[in-house]
Amino acid sequence: MPKQNPRTLFDKVWDSHVVEKLPDGTCVLYIDRHLVHEVTSPQAFEGLRMAGRKVRRPDATIAVVDHNIHTTDRSLPIVEEDSRIQVETLERNVVDFGVPYFPLRDARQGIVHVIGPEQGISLPGFTIVCGDSHTSTHGAMGALAFGIGTSEVEHVLATQTLLQKPAKNMLVRVDGKLAHGCTAKDIVLAIIGRIGTAGGTGHVIEFGGEAIRALDMSGRMTVCNMSIEAGARAGMIAPDDVTFAYIKGRPFAPQGEAFDHAVAYWRTLPSDDGAVYDTTVVLNAAELVPQVTWGTSPETVAPITGVVPDPEAADDEAKRVQLRRMLSYMGLTAGQKLSDIPIDVVFIGSCTNSRIEDLRAAADVLRGRKIAERVRGMVVPGSGLIKQQAEAEGLDRVFIEAGLEWREAGCSMCLGMNPDKIKSGERCASTSNRNFEGRQGQGGRTHLLSPAMAAAAAVKGHLTDVREFV
Amino acid sequence: MTPFTILTGVAAPLPLANVDTDKIIPARFLKTIKRTGLGVHLFDTLRYDETGAERPEFVLNQPAYRHAEILVAHENFGCGSSREHAPWALLDFGIRCVIAPDFADIFHNNCFKNGILPVRLPREVCDQLIEDSKLGGNARITVDLERQVVVRPDGTEVHFEIDAFRKNSLLHGLDDIGQTLQHAPAIDGFESREKTEKSWMPAISVG
User: Rounded to whole angstroms, how far apart are CA atoms A173 and A348?
Assistant: First the structure.
């Protein structure tokens, strides 16, 4: 065989899934796993029905409800009519098209990006898609995983492929050992602050370096999850022994001898020495300070020791206008210390930070403490199984005794399309991924931070430096 | 899909960067099982106040732009979620073309699936077009996909780049699934090779 040029992790996964390359470079790309949820799939199934098409690979597809469901008592029905119709529509579609499904009352139900890895459905070297931008989460497994729109959901259901052109390669290398009090969330927020929300446009980001290698799978998922907030189509981390140990024994992962064969293949995936990246960005994890966002874009982030920046210092008028609008929406003034900002709500959850490790980190801060009187707090596990695990460890007691609500699995307060919302003017310290205007509820104000930082803010009643607690 | 060939219409100026998908269509309007009817909620929070009344200062509420078919904006238009409800809402309102210096990837992709043409032009050109569009109904802009030009009201032409495959699909209103199914034998072949080479790969089945 002729010697191949050194390739990146992305190149290898891409190359091995090209079914056919069209003359202009567009590829028919094979998809290994398709995750389906209630919000972005109804029109896709309807399209199949109208064209008389079937789901080509039900055995490569999994459906779950997460976005618009309630996170309170699961024995109660869904109250909001339009949400109920969406869930019932999915339930009819999975029956009509024979798609595997985790229903609301199944312990395996949870946020689609949490249950994929948890069940061993998302594996290294796979192409994974879902009608949701945070599909990038699964890249932590060493997969090429990206969000698609509903037309593409229909396309994958019908053909198990997508028409795509390859992305550019970006390497984000995070050197050094992670500074005290910092987590995967602080790493990824700092990266977005550095390269901006369009910094990764057209690229797939590979995260590497000592600090990334040292993360557990949960932390790696947090980092890849927010790749999309840096504009990247996907984020990926090379699979290693940490990955393989995580996968072993999971229900839908290969078992026994098949697992060994799979590992042998997965070991060929990491980028070759000398592989070329179109862009490289380097950060030092040792220099990080816990991060928090102050504006209405994830790139408007600063160390908790910092202050709200002055819009007038921006270099062009369009930017000044935008920053003024942000501060007015957020109810902040230039120069204000971030650690002085009072909060009304704390949300610990979402596909970014609702895994057992996130809950443990929050509980470590909250154990034996009470949250401030002004604060309403909510902890929402990423899946029914995480909920069970947390309860087995007594974390639910820690949260409840501290004064937070302990809820059922779902997307919850991340996106304001289920009953968990913040009210207009309320300010939320949130472990989720987007601080857009109205994201958590119309008029609501969001500050993104890590689970430990959110827990510390809950105790103090204002944003605060978690390093005082840990 | 409706073909996109040549469009002459009113352009609405939206000189904002990072217009995210929550701004285009907030999540609370995603609870629909249809593709239509979202136009009324397009840019909901920019367009309406807390009581639901129109904000007169918002561009699409002004008489000259109520029937705009083109939108001109700043960098990173459509960032955020993968919701196709964003292009559906634009289309339902009547927007067939968005011009900006660059677009978020998934939104960019979603436009093509719905007969909306996203045109990438340098920031200076977008700013010129924004100035042009401030002339309102008197300043019609033409977008000619075949020739890949935007024609300004004064007749000046600006060339834009577009992917050949997508251009062809838009011009002829071709359905992607239909095109892909022409490669069905290659997909079959790929699947049978995978079965041998990756025999470890499990199937998903829920009991």
Answer: 28
Measure the CA–CA gap between A149 and B42, rounded to whole angstroms: 18
Report ipTM (2 d.p.): 0.95
Between chains, do B180 and A22 touch, taking CB under 8 Å as contact? no
Q: Is the pLDDT of residue A1 over 80?
A: no
Nearest to A254 among B104, B113, B202 (CB): B202
Tally C-beta pairs within 8 A across A and B: 200
B117/A285 Cα distance (integer angstroms): 42
Interface touch A443/B50, C-beta < 8 Å: yes
Name every chain B residue with its beta carbon within 8 A of the beta carbon of A415. Answer: 27
Specify if B1 maps to a domain: no
Alpha-carbon distance A234 to A252, whole Å? 23
Distance between B113 CA and the closest CA of chain A, angstroms: 6
The stretch A151-174 carries a mean pLDDT of 98
Q: Give the confidence band of A3 by pLDDT, cuts at 50, 70, 90.
A: low
**Substitution target from B31, B83, B192 for chain A, most A beta carbons within 10 A:** B31
Quick check: B202 and A150 CB within 8 A? no
- Record the tokens describing residue A178, joined without a space: 């992670």
Whether this model's pTM surpasses 0.95: yes
Question: What domain range includes position B104?
Answer: 6-197
What is the total count of domains within chain B? Answer: 1
Task: Tell me how far CA of residue A454 lies from CA of A134, A189, A317, B94, in angstroms.
Answer: 21, 14, 34, 42
CATH of the domain at B57: 3.20.19.10
C-beta separation of A127 from A34 below 8 A? no
